[in-house]
What we know:
Blueprint: E1 6-11, H1 15-26, E2 31-34, H2 41-46, H3 48-66, H4 81-105, E3 109-111, E4 115-119, E5 122-125, E6 130-138, E7 142-144, E8 170-174, H5 178-190, E9 193-197, H6 209-221, E10 225-227, E11 232-237, E12 243-247, E13 253-255, E14 257-260, E15 264-266, E16 299-301, H7 312-327, E17 341-343, E18 349-353, H8 356-363, E19 366-373, H9 376-380, E20 387-394, E21 400-406, H10 410-422, H11 427-431
Parallel strand pairs: 1-2, 1-6, 2-3, 6-16, 8-9, 8-14, 9-10
Antiparallel strand pairs: 4-5, 5-6, 7-15, 11-12, 12-13, 17-18, 18-21, 19-20, 20-21
Helix pairs in contact: 1-7, 3-4, 3-5
Amino acid sequence: MTEYDYDLFVIGAGSGGVRASRVAASHGARVAVAEEHRVGGTCVIRGCVPKKMLVYGSHFAEELRDASHYGWTIDAMHFDWASLRDTVLRDVDRLEITYTNTLDAHEVAHFHERATIAGPHAVRLASGREISAKVILIATGAVPVMPEVEGIEYAITSNEVFHLPTFPGRVLIQGAGYIAMEFAGIFNALGAHVTVVNRSDQILRGYDESLRDRLLQITMTRGIDYRFHCPIRRIEKREGEARVVHFDGHDPIEADIVLVATGRRPNVNGLGLENAGIALGFRGEIPVDGHNRTSCESIYAVGDVTDRIQLTPVAIREGHAFADTVFGGTPRVIDYGCVPNAVFSQPPLAGVGLTEAQARVNHGNIRVYSSDFRPMKNIFAERHERGLYKMVVCAESGKVLGLHMLGHEAPEILQAAAIAVKAGLTKDDFDATMALHPSMAEELVLMR
Length: 448
């Protein structure tokens, strides 16, 4: 008989937890996973996947408006929120089944209840059952941050936005990060009046400044209102679904929904980390080493709960590397350099590597190349919005330090371009590549 019930017990069946579970099981480990919500985690159930589907749905508003310039006549256009919402939720159901089937196919036991740490080798389920494991992996992700203001119970987060019973005509969004900007674009395109309020005077802090400024101009032209230096003081519920949001130093705003998108924090509350002697880090994260091990040698953590880079592909890589290291006999660490990222705003923004500001701090002598262009699609549709690509280059070596893009299909183009940046190619390498014409991607090799 073995000393433990399982070789590995995973708390959290999101992207990182599911990948770690199935890979560990493929290495011969006896694995169990507990999930208190739905298998698939934030990305699949209430995050990037259903949000991207809403983005796709909202794009039709622009496409239909532009259709007449391409010879199409479309009569009686009408948008039905319930139809889009239910289609998205059905696909979420399908994906949850797929993820569950993946666990079953690898003979991973799964418990649909909350699990907490009971000790270095023990977890306790909500039902009261205690299970022992040689190794425990924490993959509980992150949860939305909610400000402590009066009436916050009348606001929603990105978790609830996919379940709105009716389409809101007036949307107020607190925050100006990627979640806020993506939902602002979605609701604006679908016909709502959107107001973005933020405590600072910036959107998308941390992204390249030139692209942020261009996106702000475009979205304002599209009808999104902004209020900067505008913290919420209280939210008041009126008759029906109306909310009135009050601010310090600004007039109140009435809205049908108030969406709080001020960031996410590691999901550690009540996890029982103290039972294994694990202390949280400065940002409330679980500190880990290069192999994802916590201060307790039998407990590991991957994904957003470690607050390194809150991206699904990062959590998946970490989960895979953990399983290979601990159960596969092939130790490996993750390289966090040149991780591509995207904001599915309208138009979308994508980048990899250092921004211009970061490069000036880290390298000093740099060169910046750019292409400021009006996409052919916009010309035909008589739209005046312009795309903007930037390349940040080390002046001494010519190595590309960063690549940043704003425009149609920027994330799709950047994924391939990120390979070149990760490989350490130079501006000369880009210039030596023949352009693919006519395309927006050709601007990557034509920047001056």
